[in-house]
């Protein structure tokens, strides 16, 4: 698999505090890569560096390189806004825009980016994105209802559809199931396996079973360092590092 | 103390506190309804169609109305909104989006100080910067004075309402590749719109009831004013003039004017609530 996204010596800072330390990771195209590790180890910070959302936090900045198809997204002159259109993100808590209907939520990324769509194109994008997010059948009769009239699990899939509508190449998911019940979690996990045919997916998770079920590759982080990275099966059955083994066997974290 | 006795004691405390809060609510509401009731009682009898469409009659003649003052208040408050609301909302957005910068802190401090400035001082200010250079009293000067009072109110409520919008919404929008300005306008301000509208109504209600700053800006006018550069009648100044007059007929009309002013503010409030109601419901 070719590498879609590569980090080179990537560090992230909050003021003077270094949140992640010189991370080198290769994310292959069309696979799911999971990032696991105990709370506060820098998992979320790492994925937020991958679409330049880290710098939105006041006082935060990143150093090093993140190569998307070989080009550094932190190079001078690169517009963070353009990067985020190519690398979409789904957050921990579902965040539908409360003033918008279901269909407006899906189309928001295009409409607010000034992409001119006629009604037919718009309907096509809305339907395609909702189908990809496995939500179409549940909402097709109430597209004009407010986005937050849906259940939590549906809202999260709406957020996936909203991210997909912009046609990103990479999809970052920051603990997308931590606020969801087991049934909704299962739906999102199924979704990941379907979406990886078209997207490069990177998922942060607290849940080791989730990583084992969904990810082709797994990275284990601890206190801001990348401890181990490899095929998921190898990480979970035959870890090379002591810390990884301790974590996945539940001895800490 | 046994647990049953402790329960009884806690229940007693609960009932006493409940009684205190209910009493406080009643004490707050009774004067409000007395004022409104008395206003209705005194004012309604003098209300008729003439009151809304006619000019005041000269002293000694009965009848006539406050048509010019009703129109004047609507004009002056309307222009004050056109001046004050965009500036106030814009400044509030800046304060919320750029917290902690030196300019934001200075603007916030200035707004807080301005809210404490007596309105008659604002009137003197408007007299100095508008009335004197323009060479006379005018509706524009009145509107300017009211706008100066509105700006800090709108600024601070806008800031507060925008800060209530969850941080996650901003991040969700930015992560879609939506530029920051677009995120502010189409996601953040839109989500806060119902609250901002409420703040704007409160500011309008506040300035619609102002008399002092209009005394030497819009001044007053016994006739229809045909230009914004002319002195203009307003309900508050007219009510003030009529209420302190020795004529029984004028005093009756002052009550009617006060009732109409209250009605206008109420109608405006209901109107804005109706318009923003959809957004408020969706935001919940």
Plain-language structure description:
The complex is a heterodimer of chains A (253) and B (284). In chain A, 36% of the residues lie in helices and 26% in strands. By secondary structure, chain A is an alpha/beta fold. In chain A, α3 (102-111) runs parallel beside α6, α4 packs across α6 and α6 packs parallel to α7. Chain A is globular, with a radius of gyration of 18 Å. The model of chain A has no long low-confidence stretch (mean pLDDT 91). Chain B has helices spanning 3-44, 49-53, 67-97, 102-116, 119-134, 139-163, 167-175, 180-191, 193-208, 212-215, 235-243, 248-283. Classes of the chains: A alpha/beta (253), B mainly alpha (284). The interface between A and B is medium-sized, with 29 and 25 residues.
Quick gist of this model?
The complex is a heterodimer of chains A (253) and B (284). Chain A is an alpha/beta fold and 253 residues long.
